[in-house]
Amino acid sequence: MARTATTDAITRTAGKKAAAKKTVAKKAAAKKAATKPLAPASERKAAQAAFAALPLPQRLAQALDALRADASADYRDGMARFAIPNERAFGVPMVKIQAVAKRLGRDHALADALWNSAWYEARLLAAYLDDPAAVSAAQMDRWARDFDNWAVCDTVCFALFDRSPLAWRKIEQWARREDEFVRRAAFALLASKSVHDKQASDAEFLHGLELVEAYAFDERNFVKKAVNWALRSIGKRNAALHAAGLRTATRLAASAQAAPRWNGKNALRELNGPATARRLSRKP
């Protein structure tokens, strides 16, 4: 009996290992297929020009078909584990969405049509297809009102909105909004600017730290984490902002309220860590 039980256990373990290896192999194959070399630039531009000449409804239909072709039911089912609603989702990994974007090229009108389709992956694709220079304040507000999960919010802010000359104004405006994902967008946008905007002055990020301190009290999970993201990102930008970020985080860590105290302590761990020290030592 003991020998049978042991044999069964070994068989189950072997089966689990085989299943795990199969899953890893499938993910590797999917990533390889999605990241295969693009066509030569001249061919890609010609294909993009031909695509851009099509009527908008046809471009929209083809873009959605491209997403559906890369859909996975397993991936869609797994989205819920990351707090991403999947009722309007195909189940397409980000790497494949980005590959579709590279094939299609910039297209402001198509980006807005994809957004209006309300499909999860279509909205992610829209962030990569839109032209930051063509984005208006009204469009930014309209899209922000539609944010209903952290993934779309952060992708749009990180890949599109932070390149807009309107970004700083929206950070200020959206931080004052009570809607959870609009306020999150303010701090996701601030964190994104700290990474991408190489020309911004320290003064703009010092004001960003004031916003961090003002709204660190918000206990809602998706806001709290974005505030923390912004604080840590600003604090890693350069030595002066690192010192300012440490001061802000220290004050928050001493708060009697749970949300600002968590924000401060969490940021201090990273800003005082060796990885941040190495990063700052490499900056001029």
Protein architecture, described:
This protein is mainly alpha-helical. It folds into 2 domains: 24-130, no CATH class; 142-284. It has helices at residues 2-34, 41-52, 56-69, 73-78, 94-104, 108-117, 120-129, 137-146, 150-159, 167-175, 180-196, 202-215, 221-235, 239-253, 258-271, 274-281. α7 (120-129) runs parallel beside α9 and α13 (221-235) packs parallel to α15 (258-271). Mean pLDDT is 90; it is low at 1-11 and 29-36.
Our measurement of the CA-to-CA distance between the termini, rounded to an integer number of angstroms, reads 70 Å
Rounded radius of gyration (Å) = 22 Å
Low-confidence stretches: 1-11, 29-36
Query: What does the average pLDDT come to?
Result: 90
The largest sheet, given as strand count, sense and whether it forms a barrel, is: none
Beta-strand residue percentage? under 5%
Would you list the SSEs in sequence order as H and E? HHHHHHHHHHHHHHHH
Helix fraction by DSSP (H/I, runs of at least 4): over 70%
Number of strands: 0
Multimeric status of the protein: single chain
Morphology call:
globular
How do the helices and strands line up, and which of them pair or pack?
Layout (H helix, E strand, L loop, with lengths): L1 H33 L6 H12 L3 H14 L3 H6 L15 H11 L3 H10 L2 H10 L7 H10 L3 H10 L7 H9 L4 H17 L5 H14 L5 H15 L3 H15 L4 H14 L2 H8 L3
Helix pairs in contact: 3-6, 5-7, 6-7, 7-9, 9-11, 10-11, 10-12, 11-13, 12-13, 12-14, 13-14, 13-15, 14-15
In short:
The chain is mostly helical. 73% of the residues lie in helices and 0% in strands.
